[in-house]
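To fix ideas, we reproduce below a protein record of this kind.
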Amino acid sequence: MGPPHVQEVPAVTTTPQAVRRASPRTRRPANPAAPDPSAGLLPQAEPVRLLDPDGTPLRPRDDYPEPPVETLREMYRRMVVGRRFDTQATALTKQGRLAVYPSARGQEACQVGGVLALRDSDWVFPTYRESMALTARGLDPVEVLTLLRGDWHCGYDPAVTRTAPQCTPLATQCVHAAGLAYGESYQGRDTVALTFIGDGATSEGDFHEGINFAAVFKAPVVFLVQNNKYAISVPLSRQTAAPSLAYKGVGYGVPSEQVDGNDPVAVLAVLNRAVAHARAGKGPYLVEAHTYRMEPHTNADDQTRYRDADEVEAWRDRDPIARLEAYLRARGVLDDAAVAAVAEEAEAYAATLRHRMDSQPTVDPLSLFDHVYAEPTPQLLEQRELVRAELAADRDQEGDA
């Protein structure tokens, strides 16, 4: 008896394409009714812009209506005065009257737009670079500069001004803003907290913790990222591979937008929408403003080591003040007399600041040891006594002379 008959089965050649066609993922029927989880979260592919660099208006947009023209006139005034304050503060640093000063020149639209979009009852959480924003909010410029003179406190009363101390550590103010905003919301208030951050701060853990907390608890916070292209000397390309920093919001369920940060009209329009979103109880909003820092990181920075003059010069053609001035002139709401009046106001502001900064503050060297610990340690007491003895010896020598 011969072997049983075995029917041959034709060989099947499986191609990669066939595998892909047969994969359960691709065989699953599409559900066109399924909601897109990223809908309403992703920023637009290109930064929002309402004015060309020369001030020519682009087509109006329903999603970002132009702010009232009187508001734009006030924005122009605050930007001009703010820039003059900034250049004066830089000069005070060179004269030794300030220990350090981080200039915000070139970022005027973000600095002024950030505070102009808020109510007086809202809170601002600034970084060390927001001196211009704080003076634009109406804070005393000498009090704003107190911290930068080397004092141990911020100079102004945060509770009265509803402005947190300028934050030197990167991104820690994001957590503070989220916590305060949540507390205000919990108590039934419609307060919004706006926190300024730089592009470098988005690489810090506190940024991610703050925005995640705000998203989970729907805290009314606006995170305004001023992407000025450098974290001191580190370019943006060495920090992230994301298409833009605004895309970081979607990972936390936070709606985001990117805007031309040198277009004052667009900046204020986008921030108005972001603040309204937060105030309506819809949670946080992330705005990335594409701008540029025209001056060094601080007076201690040598910018020539990491960027060339041609790059800086190219950004001068995108000057936010010149852009807004050209637009308002074309609208017929700004003329030579008005421009001259604002310039005169800015000069008077700078002169008053110079005069008030002429007097050196009286400080007690022993206050260096105050508020270090609630209960001074033995080592701290010993150090304090050494300084006290040295000061006494100096006074004795001066008396003998």
Remarks:
- Residues 69-94 form the longest helix (26 residues).
- Confidence is low (pLDDT under 50) at residues 6-26.
- Strands lie at 123-125, 193-198, 221-227, 230-231, 234-235, 256-260, 285-290.
